[in-house]
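Why do we care about 3D structure at all? Because function follows from shape, and shape follows, mostly, from sequence. That is the central idea of this module. The next example makes it concrete: a single protein chain, its amino acid sequence, and then its structure expressed as tokens.
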Amino acid sequence: MEMTVHVKLFSRFRRHLPEEARGEADVELPRGATVAQLLEHLGIKGRVQLVSVNGDPEPDRERVLQECDSVRVFPFVVGG
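And the structure:
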């Protein structure tokens, strides 16, 4: 059984979705999938600065996602 979560990726992570998605898409995952499994499913291996679920920061990568959750993923940003 699957569920759908809405994902918005920022900066260089946007390349993990089709270009036409413009960094935002609904993603199907198995029920009971965690934040870590979502990142793996998307192929995100870079350093993640922040993940938010439904607008709240989520430091626990083992958090179980629910149907219709909204997940935002921000990479570390380096400036000079």
